[in-house]
Amino acid sequence: FHYEPYRLLWNPAHKSRETAVYGELYTSKAFLEAHRQLQDQPPESECDLPRRIVALMFWSDATQLTSFGEAKLWPLYLYFGNDTKYERSQPSSNLCAHVAYFQTLPDSFKDFVLENVGDKVPSDPFFTHCHRELFHAQWHKLLNDEFVHAYEHGILLMCSD
Question: Which domain of life is it from (predicted)?
Fold first, then answer.
């Protein structure tokens, strides 16, 4: 787990200057800049502990549960970008956490819409819009005031060292 970002450089023999190497989140320009901005901020009141960025990487994709039929789940996974991609990509490393399961528009909603629109069948963009609104409402629940406060002011974590 990388608490400090760093710039990785390579000096090939056939080049006259170093070349930046990007391959991990914690060596990216964005991570280095976020770390610098955090260090430049005034400290939280009565706290002189080191401040570090924890990179949350969310990932989601629909999962079909059966070979036949429509049963599926939409899980939300969390990885820490401070871990190396080589460890994150190993299922045996157990670095992935299930955070939530997203709901999808139920068939009853689609039936309700079709019953109430009369002759005019809603277009695919309408259902896409409804699905997006439901998805964003669920993210709003996850990124609640407690999360935003932790994002803006940090949280105290006990580290293994």
Answer: Eukaryota
